[in-house]
Protein: Antibiotic biosynthesis monooxygenase
Organism: Bradyrhizobium nitroreducens
Amino acid sequence: MYAAIRQAKAKSGSAEELARRIKDGAVPIISDVDGFRAYYVVYAGDDTVTAISIFDKFEQAEEANRRAVAWIEKDLGPLLAGHASAAAGPVIVHTLA
């Protein structure tokens, strides 16, 4: 299991619009990558937005980041206070309820 993680700082007050754009734009792009298993977005109190997607293989997680970063730069730029960072790697601990 591998995770693809993207993180950026959002402009204050943009949570609702970010959520709408992510649901409409990022979810279809990420879920279309082979090996897709799950997608989560966390909006922290300091306006940091973190997206985590789970895949079967490392190459799939990297592909998701490649697609997501291109989409972020094109469609989320006006809502962000800087550039997004991206990382991918193996999930070394996980549990489910």
